[in-house]
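Batch job 17 of 40 flagged for manual review because the log was empty.
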Amino acid sequence: MNKLEKYRGIIPAFYACYDSCGEVSTEKAAIFTKYLVEKKVKGLYVGGSSGECIYQNPEERKRLLEAVVEAAEGKLTIIAHVACNNTRDSVDLARHAQSVGVDAIASIPPIYFHLPDYAIAKYWNDMSAAAPDTDFIIYNIPQLAGVALSLPLLRTMLDNPRVVGVKNSSMPVQDIQMFKAEGTRGGREFVVFNGPDEQLVSGLAMGADGGIGGTYAVMSELYNAIYSLVQKGNISKAREIQNKANEIIYAMCSCKGNLYAVMKEIIKIRDGIDLGGVRNPLFNLVAEDMDCVRRCKTMIDEAIASI
């Protein structure tokens, strides 16, 4: 089997789990992990945007990752996003992630200050060096990080043999093709993940090996179906399901509360799993959101039933 086969498929971005006091809950993280194992997804992306990483301290992130890895029991590919906005904490999280046995670490570039490529490369390579037995995945999300992965920077990073892929959340689907072509040059094994949930079909069609998405966990059945259909060449049916998923995303985003608060509430209503709310300054649900939440839940149920 190709050594990167473990990254090919649908990988939900793991949601932050909080108790009633707003503290991270390892118990809820374990329950959520087992829930997603049952959904037959390929893996989990832990500690990224959907995990509210920028609102948690490193020790909280470590505890949540430990709970996920233990609960997964080796049944899922685990990618740990370890970036902090300073190298010291990022290196510490990378070292910890390797110690608990993740498959890969991942990182956005440093945010706020727009650093030159050589500084970003050093930042990434420093954390990779702290996890020398673990794959490294570059996370490209220029609309939030403020800097885009360039081909020269990717070429520099490919000098590091632990760099095995890119999680691409830029909007141009062409980026997937360019990163894939560069990464596989010379016969190298390299994976590219589609990031924008709304264009999974087009990302897969352009060569993505799988997807990592923030809405996957709330309707993983739809994304598993899209992936399977594209692999079989049934683009028409995959597009039909993608359109339904997109309508659900637009509806969830219409609430006043943050998208992650909406999705956690849907999971609570559908499956009885309470993941808590979201951490300030993300905005939690308000009373008038509940009609929208229930409507989105119904939309998900109907879309799944139609597969």
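Reviewer: the log was empty due to a logging misconfiguration, but the result itself is present. The domain at 5-233 is CATH 3.20.20.70 (TIM Barrel). Unflagging and moving on to job 18.
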